[in-house]
Amino acid sequence: MKPSAKRLLNILVPVKRSVDYAVKIRVNPEQTGIDTNVKHSMNPFDEIAVEEAVRLREKLKEKVTSIKAITIGPPKSIETLRTALAMGADSAIHVEVPEPGPSPEPLAVAKTLRAIIERQNSAAKSPADKIDLVILGKQAIDDDLGVTGQMLAGLLGWSQATFASKLEVDTEKGEAFVVREIDGGGEELRCRLPLVVTTDLRLNEPRYASLPNIMKAKKKPIEKLSPADLGVDYTPQLETLKVAEPPKRVGGGKVANVDELIAKLKEAGIEAA
Amino acid sequence: MLRTSSTFCRRAFVRSYATATSPHALVFLEHRGGVIDSGSLSALTAAEQLGGQVSALIVGSSDHVPGVVDKVKKLKGVTSVLHSTSPQYAEPVPEILSPLFESILSDSTFTHVVSATSSSAKSLLPRVSARLDAPTISDVTSLEHDASSGSTTFTRPIYAGNAISTVRAPSGIPIKFFTVRGTAFAPAADADSTAEATAVDPVEVADPVTVHLKTTIAKSDRPDLGVASRVISGGRALKNAETFEKTLYPLADVLGAAVGASRAAVDAGYADNSLQVGQTGKVVAPELYMALGISGAIQHLAGMKDSKLIVAVNKDPDAPIFQVADVGLVADLFDVVPELTEKLKK
């Protein structure tokens, strides 16, 4: 049977530039945020999202028509898009927000993504050009909110598969089989496309971009848009009153042997159950 | 120009005053097979701290809901219980539950929607909140509601717990959605009172876009990691799954502790994913947290540094875990753990 145009996949991968996961962050003296003059990189969960999109193409070949990365952030976020392109995305969109400024809230990000998807899907000449799969990280490691994917699925009325540790897409049937990480174990779902997936750490092991691919990525197209182009208001709904250091824990020193350790446990009222 | 703006200001002021109603929280109360999740009990306590009415919402299949309703009616702080039963609600599929929430919230006095920071609520609440054009504030550790202005102030950890953010949801957000970090609030206890229960018609979803196929729960006789008062955790140093089990489980049994693991141990296959403690796993705050062969990366510390007593055993005297440990022992865990287990037995 000749594959019909319907059975092609366009994947959108939103990525975020965040403080590198290995950086020990410091709260600024004004207590308005953290010192951001540190190493940044792609949010680790988003790397997994890009990797998954690229692996889907490796598996489904030409059935994956396009992989588009998108970021909403300050001018420097373009580096994050280049990383995504070097990993295997075809093109990218940069919705630029001024720096310094509050980073857009998840709901505004979800609305931006919806606007991008609706823009592309209403302009699509055939269903083959429509975005039908969005893969996001399950949370950004800076705000640790973990809500954007669910919000996007809600706004679009699409199916959602959060905390995915396994994803199999059947383009013929237009559905996906997903294994999710849940409290205490796992869960298997069958989701109909179009679908929003959020990645768990266990979904895959992201690749390193090779030097030739980094060079090639420089030639891949990045479209620049402003929030106004998409009609999204980035005024925060929440007011951040303060960002503070957590209460400091002081190490209590070391003991020399097991007996001293047991004595310390007893002191704290801990004995065999 | 000036006049218009001052009229506008006054009107906005008057309006915010007029709309500041007494808080009424809807708590998404979770249960598995009729057993109430302890995180939900903490969410009830958090909801009670808003200072108004607290309605618990229980959804599920007809097998379990009646029993859960009976238990929840008697919990402290609960002023009413809503329940909705449908075969479709047997598993918490967000695409199926979202319309029910929208229906309940569309015509009501609810000012807050609250849940535990559980995997199912984390999937559901943001979906519903986006449909109502409201944010979801995740993993709240404390809160304060100002009844006169209708604003609620929350604190929550950011950057893997390395900073604490205080945010205010102003009165302009009519329904405030938030999830609650279980270890930061005591679970609601039983009370003498009995709240009234009301059945809510389910909102059937014809031809749902997502179908639940199967749930696999890792079985364990030990206390649940999220709520255990003692946790024994192992890291990469445990070598393999067999050694992990052989070394840690006897000690855990002696102490009546739950077993946890670092991401390294989980990734290497020594322990099940559900045992992972950290930023991307479970957040625990037990009386005793024993970190064995765990170096103490920030992502791991994010999940356990609110524990009351932290004990670390590590061969490396410079391991970062010693900076947070109350009691540290620089030694080979393969010597220490058996000795400790034996001596504790006595």
From TrEMBL, chain A:
Superkingdom of origin organism: Eukaryota
Major localization class: mitochondrion
InterPro entries for the chain: ET-Flavoprotein_bsu_CS, ETF_a/b_N, ETF_b, ETF_beta_N, Rossmann-like_a/b/a_fold
Localisation: Mitochondrion matrix
Biological function: The electron transfer flavoprotein serves as a specific electron acceptor for several dehydrogenases, including five acyl-CoA dehydrogenases, glutaryl-CoA and sarcosine dehydrogenase. It transfers the electrons to the main mitochondrial respiratory chain via ETF-ubiquinone oxidoreductase (ETF dehydrogenase).
Any one GO molecular function term: electron transfer activity
Cofactor: FAD; AMP
Cited Gene3D superfamilies: HUPs (3.40.50.620)
Family, similarity comment: Belongs to the ETF beta-subunit/FixA family.
CDD domains, per the entry: ETF_beta (cd01714)
Note describing how the cofactor binds: Binds 1 FAD per dimer.
PANTHER family the record matches: ELECTRON TRANSFER FLAVOPROTEIN BETA-SUBUNIT, ELECTRON TRANSFER FLAVOPROTEIN SUBUNIT BETA
Organism: Galerina marginata (strain CBS 339.88)
Entry annotated with the keyword Mitochondrion: yes
Pfam family for this entry, one: ETF
Protein name listed in UniProt: Probable electron transfer flavoprotein subunit beta
One GO CC annotation: mitochondrial matrix
Self-association and partners: Heterodimer of an alpha and a beta subunit.
Biological process (GO), any one: amino acid catabolic process
Keywords from the UniProt entry: Electron transport, Mitochondrion, Transport
Domain Electron transfer flavoprotein alpha/beta-subunit N-terminal residues, every copy: 32-234
TrEMBL record, chain B:
Gene3D superfamilies in the record: HUPs, TPP-binding domain
Recorded family membership: Belongs to the ETF alpha-subunit/FixB family.
Cofactor(s) named in the record: FAD
GO molecular function (one): electron transfer activity
Record key words, sorted: Electron transport, FAD, Flavoprotein, Mitochondrion, Transit peptide, Transport
Protein name as catalogued: Probable electron transfer flavoprotein subunit alpha
Pfam families hit by this protein: ETF (PF01012), ETF_alpha (PF00766)
Gene Ontology, cellular component aspect: mitochondrial matrix
Major localization listed first in the record, in broad terms: mitochondrion
Primary role: The electron transfer flavoprotein serves as a specific electron acceptor for several dehydrogenases, including five acyl-CoA dehydrogenases, glutaryl-CoA and sarcosine dehydrogenase. It transfers the electrons to the main mitochondrial respiratory chain via ETF-ubiquinone oxidoreductase (ETF dehydrogenase).
Binding site for FAD: 236, 262-263, 276-280, 293-300, 314
Subunit structure, as described in the record: Heterodimer of an alpha and a beta subunit.
Cofactor, how bound (note): Binds 1 FAD per dimer.
Keyword set includes Transport: yes
GO biological process: fatty acid beta-oxidation using acyl-CoA dehydrogenase
Protein's cellular compartments: Mitochondrion matrix
Keyword Transit peptide applies: yes
